[in-house]
Write a structure and sequence with these properties.
The chain is of the alpha/beta class. The protein is built from 13 helices and 11 strands. The strands form 2 sheets. The protein has a 9-stranded mixed β-sheet with strand order 1-2-3-5-4-8-9-10-11, sandwiched between helices. It is globular and about 80 Å long.
C-alpha cells in the first residue's frame, strides 16, 4: 500500500474510528481476571493513540510531501548505482553530444495534485553519467499539445524540494501546475515545461546536490542527466538559454548553487528561504568537510569567479531565513550577474509551504521576464524590499555564509 496513496489515508481514518469506538463499547464489558482486563484496556488505549498519530502523520505528509515512499520513511532507499569520479565539470570528460538519445516511457503520476491541471507524468530514469536511478516528474504547459505550437520548443524549469522532501512537492503541496495553468493560458506567464527530479537519493542524508566520489553524483544527476533526458524526449529549448532551476529550503540552496556553478547549463535560478553554506542543513553530505562546504557554497563560488556568469538569481526570505543569503550574493555579484532579493516579513509565515506557495506566481512572472519569454500583456508581480538590510544582529561572516540566526543550523529541510 502506497505511503501517499488515498487507500492508506482511508485505512488510517477507518482504524482511528475503530480505535475510538472500541473502548466505548468494550471498556465496561471486559471479563476475566483483573490483570487481563487492565492489559486489554491498556492495549485499546495504545491502539487509539497509535492510530491517531498515524492519521496525523499521513495527513501532514500528504500536505507537505515529505516522504514519497515507505523506503524514504524507513531510510532504506538507495538510488545510487555508482558514483565515479567525474571531475570538476561533472561529466567525466564525456562528450554529451555523442551520447545516444535517451528515450523514456512515461505514465500518469499518482498522488495528491498529480492529476490536476492536465496531469503530471513520471518516468524512471537511469542516469548514464551520474549513476543515479530515480524517478522524474514532468508537467507540460497547455500550449504543448496545441497544433499551433507543434514545432515550438519550450523553456524548462527544474523544481527542487527541501529536505526531507518528495519530488512531487511542487505539484502536490505548492500546486505549481494548478496555479500556473491559467497564467500560461492568458499569456501572463511563459509556457514552461516543469520538471521535478528526485533529490532524496540516499537514506537518511541530504546530498546537498553535490558530487562526492564513491558516494553520489547528485549535481550531475540534476544538471546533466535530467536535462539531457528532457531535451531528448520533449520539445524543450536548449541549455542554458531556455533552462532555469527553482527550489525552496534545501532545494533553494541547490538551485542557486547549480546555476552559479553551471552557467553553461542554466540561465536563471530561484531560491526561497535557502542558505549558502551547506551546513545550513545539518544532514547535508556537502557539509562533511571544509573543502566540500567551500566547493558547494554559491556565495564563495560566485565571489571566486574570474568572469561573472550571465545568470539571474531570485532570492526570497525572511530575516534570518534566506534573506541574508540573498544579500550576501548581491554584495559580490557583478554584471552580467544579477541578484533580485525579496524581503518577506515575519507576518507572511514561517519556514513552511504556506510561505512558499503564494510566491509561485510571482516567481514565474519573474522567470518569464528574466529569460526573455515575456508576452506583450505580461504583468510583473510586486515584491517587498526593506529600506535597509536586515541583519538580525548577525556578523559579516554569518551574512556571507547565509547561516545567520538559524538556531545552530538545526532546522530540518
Amino acid at each position: 500500500m502506497s505511503l501517499t496513496g488515498t487507500s492508506f489515508l482511508y485505512t488510517a481514518v477507518v482504524l482511528t474510528i475503530v480505535a475510538l469506538i472500541l473502548p466505548l463499547v468494550l471498556w465496561s464489558r471486559m471479563r476475566g481476571p483483573k490483570a487481563v482486563r487492565v492489559a486489554a484496556r491498556a492495549l485499546m488505549l495504545l491502539f487509539a493513540q497509535a492510530t491517531a498519530v498515524t492519521l496525523v502523520f499521513v495527513m501532514v505528509n500528504n500536505q507537505n510531501n515529505l516522504y514519497d515512499s515507505w523506503a524514504d520513511l524507513l531510510g532504506t532507499g538507495n538510488h545510487v548505482q555508482q558514483a565515479a569520479n567525474l571531475g570538476r565539470n561533472g561529466t567525466g570528460n564525456i562528450s554529451l553530444n555523442r551520447l545516444p538519445k535517451v528515450k523514456q516511457a512515461f505514465s500518469p503520476a499518482e498522488g495528491p495534485g498529480m492529476r490536476a491541471a492536465g496531469g503530471v507524468e513520471v518516468t524512471q530514469l537511469k542516469g548514464r553519467v551520474s549513476g543515479v536511478d530515480a524517478e522524474v516528474y514532468v508537467w507540460l504547459p497547455p500550449q504543448y499539445k496545441e497544433p499551433a505550437y507543434r514545432h515550438h520548443k519550450f523553456p524548462v524549469v527544474e523544481l527542487l524540494p527541501g529536505y526531507p522532501g518528495s519530488a512531487k512537492a511542487w505539484f502536490g503541496s505548492l500546486h505549481a501546475n494548478e496555479q500556473l495553468l491559467p497564467l500560461m493560458r492568458s499569456g501572463r506567464v511563459a509556457p514552461f515545461i516543469l520538471v521535478a527530479p528526485r533529490t532524496n537519493l540516499l537514506a537518511g542524508v541530504d546530498t546537498g546536490c553535490a558530487n562526492i566520489t564513491g558516494t553520489v553524483n547528485a549535481d550531475t544527476w540534476l544538471s546533466v542527466d535530467v536535462p539531457k533526458m528532457v531535451m531528448d524526449n520533449f520539445r524543450a529549448e536548449l541549455a542554458p538559454s531556455g533552462w532555469a532551476v527553482a527550489g525552496y529550503s534545501a532545494g533553494a540552496h541547490c538551485a542557486v548553487k547549480l546555476a552559479v556553478a553551471h552557467p553553461d547549463r542554466y540561465r536563471a535560478a530561484v531560491g526561497m528561504s535557502g542558505y549558502n553554506d551547506p551546513i545550513g542543513e545539518r544532514n547535508s553530505l556537502a557539509a562533511a568537510s571544509p573543502a566540500l562546504r567551500a566547493a558547494n557554497n554559491p556565495y564563495l563560488l560566485l565571489k571566486g569567479k574570474k568572469t561573472p556568469p550571465p545568470i539571474a538569481l531570485y532570492i526570497s526570505g525572511e530575516a534570518g531565513d534566506g534573506y541574508e543569503a540573498g544579500t550576501a550574493l548581491a554584495s559580490v555579484a557583478e554584471a552580467p550577474t544579477t541578484v533580485h532579493v525579496v524581503f518577506l516579513p515575519r507576518s507572511d509565515g514561517g519556514h513552511t509551504m504556506a510561505l512558499w506557495r503564494p510566491q509561485v506566481k510571482a516567481v514565474f512572472r519573474w522567470l518569464t521576464l528574466e529569460m526573455g519569454k515575456n508576452h506583450p500583456h505580461a504583468k510583473t508581480g510586486t515584491t517587498t524590499t526593506p529600506h535597509a538590510r536586515s541583519t538580525s544582529g548577525s556578523t559579516h561572516a554569518e551574512l556571507a555564509s547565509g547561516t545567520a540566526s538559524r538556531a545552530g543550523a538545526a532546522r530540518k529541510r
